[in-house]
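Supplementary Text 2. Reproducibility record for the structural model of the 321-residue chain.

All settings were left at their defaults, and a single model was retained for analysis rather than an ensemble. We include the record here because the model underlies the residue-level annotations in Supplementary Table 4.
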Amino acid sequence: MRMKWKKFRLSTTEAAEDIVVATLADCGIEGVEIVDKAPLTEEEKQQMFVDIPPQEQEDDGTAQLFFYLDPEEDHEPVLARVREELESLRQFMDIGSGAIDISETEDVDWINNWKQYFRQFTIDEDILVVPSWEEIREENRGKMILHIDPGTAFGTGMHETTQLCIRQLKKYVRPGCEILDVGTGSGILSIIACKLGAGHAVGTDLDPCAVPAVKENCEANGLTEQQMELLLGNLIDDAAVQERVGRERYDIVLANILADVLVPLMPAAAAAMKPGGVCILSGILEGQEPKVVSAAEHAGLELAEITHKGEWVGVTCRKPA
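Retained model, structure tokens:
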């Protein structure tokens, strides 16, 4: 007997779809399907390795996000939180109607459906991201190889915010340095840092899905348990996690999260940094960087650099030596 799932459709805009998906992830909703009419770029077409038919429908700027929840669980608290977070987003950007429609669907392997769209691709021409089910093409040999299967944890490397962090890691990682990766997701940033020469990484995350994702991705990339460890919990206000993370221990603190989470994170992030260490922040929409910079400065950090990719911003700060 096939199980029925509750299927939810959230109406938003193309401009807001990335941040709304990230908001859903913060609410515990993974495996979101995005349907819009935005034309693919040439780079996106090359990454898909299939012939793309001509676009027949005019792009109207709207997007539909589909996700599934177990019908046997009480989904009202989750939806209430989603609606609350969507109303918060309205204060600084147009998210469209934000309406959520509910229907019922047959049991589908939606957790694994993303695999048909995830193909190997390069980041800045020198890093190749490869899922486990693909062979490395001959022309890509010689690049840094990163084997990533994100599963339901956030982080494939395709998103602009992740790439902003990776570019900063290339600048600041030094042999043997200590990394703290807040909101590690699939572990992609910690793994790249270790491949660039970092000696040890600690990841923190609220999502239990990060545990198997990090373990499998570390194994796929040859990292040992001594090179990367994962802590479940909230660094912002969980004293036990803060104690395990430690104080003034890390050369680099990473956080690729939303701006509204980065702001309260700054005191704990600054406390974990060594004097002279750097804090690499992303997940920030254009126009939100001033409040993130202000929070970092109030925590005793100094602005080192602001970077941009698309509509997203990266902020890098330094702790005075």
